[in-house]
Amino acid sequence: MASASLQFFAFILALFGVFGDIAATLLPHWKVNADVGSNIITAITQMQGLWMDCTWYSTGMFSCTLKYSILSLPVYIQAARTTMVLSCILSAFGICITTVGMKCTKLGGDTDSKNHACFAGGLCFILAGIFGLVPTCWYTREIISNFLDQTIPESSKHEPGGAVYTGFISAGFLLIAGVIFCSSCFKRQQGAWIYPPKQHHLPSTEQESNAGYNLKDYV
């Protein structure tokens, strides 16, 4: 019962991780730059994401521009696009596989098949967490290095946006969920190897007496 509740808790964490992963991939809040200038009324907030750049004016206007050209983008943005999409795909596969392998569901067949499905789903979550953690760390490093560079003007410097933090948290949820699924299946299999099922054998004298008794019945 405890293992089933732990798997359900890991599944909830994985769901939050999947939704956060998708939101971080699509949102344009990876880099944020607030240019107030001399007048707060004409303040402009510039946001840059993996797929589009958006500008929000204090007057209420909001406009976005899609990034159509892939080759013109920096390397870290191209890598972030690829790894975040892979993270979303792997986490979605993990949700489907662990749904079959969880103990609280009636899918997946016998116990061994469900354990293998849970282990495979846990591996998908761990890989998705790694794929989601690498681009967020790399993207944050580029933002900090540009912010500390004295040769870059202040108007071109940015700060990490909400999508970066969402990616960090989602990657952590996926990693924790994957470790829980893999460890729960591994502990169950290890316990079966260390403590094999007991086999009851009759003593040899008792077996001989029973055999002799049976032979006498047929004489």
Characterization of the model:
The chain has 219 residues and is an alpha+beta fold. The protein has a domain of 147 residues: Butyryl-CoA Dehydrogenase, subunit A, domain 3. 63% of the residues lie in helices and 11% in strands. It contains five helices and five strands; from the N terminus they run αββββααβαα. It has a five-stranded antiparallel sheet. β3 and β4 form a beta hairpin. α1 packs antiparallel against α4, α2 runs antiparallel to α3 and α3 runs antiparallel to α4. The longest helix has 38 residues. The C terminus is likely disordered. GO terms for molecular function: structural molecule activity. Belongs to the claudin family. Its main location: other.
Provide tags for this entry.
PMP22/EMP/MP20/Claudin; disordered C terminus; transmembrane; elongated; 63% helix; 5 helices; Butyryl-CoA Dehydrogenase, subunit A, domain 3; structural molecule activity; cell membrane; 219 residues; 5 strands; alpha+beta; 5-stranded antiparallel β-sheet
Distance between the termini: 55 Å
| Major sheet summary line | 5 strands, antiparallel
* CATH class (first level) name of the domain at 4-27 and 71-193: Mainly Alpha
Residue stretches low in confidence (pLDDT < 50, at least 5 long) are 189-195, 206-213, 215-219
Q: Tell me, briefly, the overall form.
A: elongated
The H-and-E topology, N to C, reads as HEEEEHHEHH
**Residue share in helix:** 55-70%
Broad structural category: alpha+beta
* CATH topology category name of the domain at 4-27 and 71-193: Butyryl-CoA Dehydrogenase, subunit A, domain 3
Strand content: 5-15%
* CATH architectural designation of the domain at 4-27 and 71-193: Up-down Bundle
Order of strands in the sheet with the most strands? 4-3-2-1-5
Number of strands: 5
Distinct helical segment count: 5
Radius of gyration: 28 Å
Report mean pLDDT, rounded to a whole number.
80
